[in-house]
Design a protein that fits this description.
By secondary structure, the chain is of the alpha+beta class. It is built from 8 helices and 12 strands. Helices cover about 30% and strands about 35% of the residues.
């Protein structure tokens, strides 16, 4: 069972493409979208003969506050601090598409914000929704890092902080002990940042950033494994003109 869980952990994490897109307005408002798309070619290599045996279909759309309303009796059982945490996700829109027939596995999280500092860590959305639905403890707190953002009108920052060093070390150990045969596979496992700003970019802290012709947008690509093993490497500071 332990080996099976390790296999599932490995295949899910490194057989996908994640795109994080932010459109930021001059007044600090904007929109964020995070798409987690399973790369079918990569997953097929990892899953082997099990790939053709999949039987999964889900096409679900909801706004997080609908869960709070529907399971309000459960929601009220949480502490005030936990309730405040859930409420930060109230306006997050979620679309989950998982189709073995169409071979499309895509999770989309979107949020319109007034201040980007109010944007919660969207990767925890599903965990918190399940917590409310099934009356779980805060399962998302098992994540070993959190993502946040700030913007003061000129300086934008993407802030990634490790919150559980022990879990980070366990993740590193899991990757270290994975089956060596996976190293020879050609996997697509990109984490792409696409950020759009109201003015021209003066400087970017990551030298891998590619600026748009008008210098108002940037794109940066990371390997997902690098993001998982060194989350803070995805920190970013952008200074506008």
């Amino acid at each position: 069972m332990k080996k099976l869980l390790a296999f599932l952990f490995f295949t899910i994490l490194i057989s996908c493409q994640i795109t994080e897109t932010i459109h930021l307005n001059a007044d600090g408002s904007g929109n964020i979208e995070v798409i987690n798309l399973r790369d079918e070619n990569s997953y097929m290599q990892l899953a082997g003969e099990n790939y053709s045996k999949e039987e999964k279909f889900q096409d679900t759309t909801y706004v997080f506050q609908e869960y709070i309303k529907k399971y309000n009796e459960t929601f009220l059982k949480y502490t005030l601090e936990e309730q405040k945490l859930f409420l930060k996700y109230s306006n997050v829109k979620v679309h989950l598409k998982k189709s073995s027939f169409e071979k499309e596995f895509r999770d989309v999280f979107t949020l319109d914000f007034t201040k980007i500092s109010d944007v919660p860590d969207l990767f925890k959305t599903e965990n918190y929704a399940d917590d409310i639905k099934y009356n779980y403890a805060l399962t998302a707190e098992r994540h070993y890092y959190k993502i946040g953002y700030t913007f003061d009108g000129t300086v934008f920052k993407r802030l990634v902080v490790v919150t559980n060093e022990a879990q980070l070390q366990k993740t590193k150990e899991d990757f270290k002990n994975r089956d060596p045969k996976y190293a020879s596979l050609k996997l697509t496992q990109l984490y792409t940042l696409k950020y759009h700003f109201p003015r021209k970019i003066k400087s970017v802290s990551n030298e891998k950033a590619i600026l748009s012709p008008d210098k108002k947008a940037l794109t940066i690509e990371f390997q997902i494994t690098d993001c998982l093993l060194n989350p803070e490497s995805t920190n970013l500071e952008v200074i506008l003109e």
